[in-house]
Design brief:
The mean pLDDT is 83. 62% of the residues lie in helices and 0% in strands. By secondary structure, it is mainly α. The longest helix has 21 residues. The chain is globular and about 50 Å long. Helix 1 packs antiparallel against helix 2, helix 1 crosses helix 6 and helix 3 runs antiparallel to helix 4. It is built from six helices and no strands. It has one domain.
């Protein structure tokens, strides 16, 4: 779920020194692409398709590298790959279009949301969100939180 991805991104920022903006943006990017394509546009048969591939991770990381430098690209890649790993509970089309994937039958948005809210892993996601909230609060209190792209590694 979204808050699990955001929590892991916050923890990655704190413990790996990943730049907060790119690691967080990348942590939600696959869902922003695929869920909108599926639920809003009716384009994909599932909420996990092109945004959930290793090709998308590599291409978007390359774009971030070219536009914003190494540190931001490394942070983006970390956030993106963590998203794909956190989704391992279901089918993730990592190697599409080279491999064909079978997906569960289509569920509507509310049915999918309820299914996510009632699965056992929600307890882990809530725990991660609480941990991340504590960590980010400490960063704010210490004046160490930056909501900008890193200038380090830019132009490298």
């Amino acid at each position: 779920m979204l808050f699990g991805h955001l929590a892991v991104a916050a923890l990655q920022h704190r413990y790996t020194k990943a730049a907060l903006v790119p690691v967080t943006a990348a942590a939600v990017f696959p869902d922003a692409i695929d869920k909108v394509a599926h639920y809003v546009l009716g384009y994909n048969a599932t909420g996990r398709m092109w945004g959930h591939t290793l090709i998308a991770a590599a291409l978007t990381s390359l774009v971030v590298l070219l536009l914003f430098g190494r540190l931001n690209a490394a942070s983006w890649t970390l956030g993106y790959l963590s998203h794909l790993l956190l989704d391992i509970e279901g089918t993730v089309p990592w190697l599409a279009p080279f491999v064909t994937y079978e997906f569960a039958p289509h569920r509507g948005f509310l049915e999918a949301l309820w299914g996510n809210l009632t699965r056992p892993m929600i307890v882990v996601e809530i725990a991660l969100a609480v941990w991340a909230t504590i960590v980010i609060r400490q960063e704010i209190d210490a004046g160490r939180l930056s909501l900008t792209l890193s200038r380090q590694g830019q132009g490298d």
